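Dear all,

This email documents one entry for the complex benchmark we are building for the journal club exercise. For each entry we list the sequence lines for every component of the assembly. Then comes the predicted three-dimensional structure of the complex as a token string, followed by one or two observations. Please use this as the template for your own entries, and keep the labels exactly as they appear.
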Amino acid sequence: MKPVAFEYCRADTPDEAVALLAEFGGDASVLAGGMSLGAMLNMRLVRPRAVIDVNRLTALAEIKQRDGIVETGALVRQADALESDLVVREVPLLALALPHVGHFQTRSRGTLGGSVAHADPSAEIPLCLVTLGGSVVLRSRHVRRVPAREFFAGVLTTARQPDELVVGLEWPRRRAGAGYAFDEIAQRHGDFAITAAAAAAETNGGKITALAFGLGGVEDRPIAPDVARFVGAPANDTTARQIAAEIADRVTPIEDLQGTAAYRRQLARVVGARVIAQAFARCSG
Amino acid sequence: MLRLKPDARHRVTVTVNGKRMSGFAEPRTLLADFLRHELKLFGTHVGCEHGVCGACTVIIDGRAVRSCLRYAVQVDGGDIRTVEGLADGDKLNALQDAFSRHGALQCGFCTAGILMSATQYLKENQKPTEVEVRDMLSGHICRCTGYEQIVRAIMDVAAQ
């Protein structure tokens, strides 16, 4: 199918993009890579009065490092993030997840910020941001930061207001000695994950000193359940299975043609245990 | 800032396979449709129109991308390579020749997209493994070949 007619607005600066968002009052879609929005426009699932193309906002295509944070501009292409030494070195979880994001032919255009703004429950980039406890930077007349764990509100629904533009993502930098792991089950590599799991762990003398665990594709948004009570437990496969099993019992999985709730719960248990164990094994503490 | 009215046709000028070409497009016109119906380059095929099947893949400014997920007005001034640019007259290039020799196509609907993906991929990865080639091919759907012959053809070219 083809989209309904829309006004095409190409912003040359973030200020222009924000002014356009204010002008159309929610009846506009922000077009970054277009890997999701293009499909939704073509299928007429969205019918905005205007499309605001942000692809010329080169200032939003930078990857920068400051204090304990790596900031990826919203317009950083997934392929470029995958090639970035800074991302590979300082945000290893994202680097592990990116090969699962779409395909060679979509990562070339798809953006980090676009995936977060789109908020597909099974998307890998939002899951990594939630697991690591990163933030989404939004801009309207003011700039505000929303913790990723509060940003995702449900299927394709976020805390972004209609007049706000996602301008960047803030990723906590790698912690010395920490281990990271990511894995997912999809119909074929690069498709939407039926269930994805991410883990970041730190250990000392074989015991867990810090742990973050996230699941995507299970509930209506990426989740990072509280696993603090396992700090102090032995960092081994048995604990990994125990943590994943406990979380899997507590989740409320979605159901669709790709999998029943029971199947997703089982995947959360199995894939979850696998990534937690992998993260432990990669710790140098 | 550029603003284009929804119901009007706007001039779009691009370089396709080294040649400057020009046509008209509404903001909602897909690049794939612009190439076919406006520039009369029918080599690029339109399959699913939502970025999944890969039939419409072309190279824009040095990146293999879906031309069904790009609007023609976005590409004004851009550099596009399509399947029409591969052969030198009647002489197939090495990749096309390998596809022919290995039987890497049957109906041919998916072929143009796969050729453009593989062209860009081999430019970025001179010595890919078979696993890597299969991963690249996961961005395409072929219902005839079962992919084996396509993998062999691309590996053949990579080894040349």
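Observations: The interface with chain B takes residues 1-12, 16, 20, 31, 33-35, 38-39, 41-43, 51, 53, 55, 79, 99, 102-106, 108-109, 188-190 of chain A (CB under 8 Å). The longest strand of chain A covers residues 193-204.
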